[in-house]
């Protein structure tokens, strides 16, 4: 069973997040505003190597880039 | 400050109860399947420490750090660290900088959302190293006064596949990786929400104590102020009277 999104390098969590976002956006306005706050994510992260902290990056951008890099590797 | 913290605490507690049922449902699967972590040599364990960015809440972050160090001292070199939150990062980067692989910041401003947990879980599952298991360290909420550093386990694919009763669920092997990722996100969400509730309750207590201590200080300064005022008045009276008697004479 091959999934199209798996081939595009998207993880299951990302797949869920996208689906959830679509549902939230299709809600009525009053409910939508409330629901969209639950979907916000504004984290930063840094990779560490040899005891040194790397550059602080936005998690959302990095996740997207990493998944693009993984595209095509797994079926 | 205490009232602000109290309102936040109620919200955090509500979020915690909701996420707890979420996490425990996800755990039921593994309990029923009797999943056990696989003991494998020369594979490291990933330890995720869930603290937050903000201070002013007593020893809650140090408690986590201490728990982490205790665990790492038992089997040195066996753990890699993922640190969520600036506070524990600052503490752990002093003692174990070599073991940290990832650190996250920006958590703890508000009640953690599932998107937070998902994004973190994604970044963790994209790590190049293969870990035998993932342990999540968080503050367990016992009651409004006490909490303790606890570990929840997120299993690796092999561990899930090797569990004795897993066949009963009839999960295809292809989707096993999805289940693992999703379970990791669930466990993280639970840990984050519970950690957040602990932090808020600890902050409420800290603010309460701060107000009490300030009360003592206010009474002390009030007395000091009154004494000084009286002294100044007496001095001025003496001056006036001396001046008056000098001009008369």
Automatic annotation (TrEMBL), chain A:
Q: Say which family it is in.
A: Belongs to the eukaryotic ATPase epsilon family.
Question: What Pfam families does the database record attribute to this sequence?
Answer: ATP-synt_Eps
Q: Name one GO cellular component term.
A: mitochondrial inner membrane
Q: Which GO terms describe its molecular function?
A: proton-transporting ATP synthase activity, rotational mechanism
Species of origin: Friedmanniomyces endolithicus
One of this protein's GO BP terms? proton motive force-driven mitochondrial ATP synthesis
InterPro entries associated with the record: ATP_synth_F1_esu_mt, ATP_synth_F1_esu_sf_mt
Put simply, this protein is called ATP synthase subunit epsilon, mitochondrial
Residue ranges annotated as transmembrane are none
TrEMBL record, chain B:
Its subunit composition reads: F-type ATPases have 2 components, CF(1) - the catalytic core - and CF(0) - the membrane proton channel. CF(1) and CF(0) have multiple subunits.
By its UniProt entry, which CDD domains does this protein fall under?
F1-ATPase_gamma
Gene3D superfamilies for the chain: 3.40.1380.10, ATP synthase, gamma subunit, helix hairpin domain
Say which family it is in: Belongs to the ATPase gamma chain family.
Sorted alphabetically, which PANTHER family does this protein's record hold?
ATP SYNTHASE GAMMA CHAIN, ATP SYNTHASE SUBUNIT GAMMA, MITOCHONDRIAL
Record organism: Rachicladosporium monterosium
Q: How does it sit in the membrane?
A: Peripheral membrane protein
The cellular location(s) given in this protein's UniProt record come to: Membrane
A Pfam family matched by this chain, by name? ATP-synt
Q: What is this protein called?
A: ATP synthase subunit gamma
Q: Does the keyword Ion transport apply?
A: yes
UniProt keywords (A-Z) are:
ATP synthesis, CF(1), Hydrogen ion transport, Ion transport, Membrane, Transport
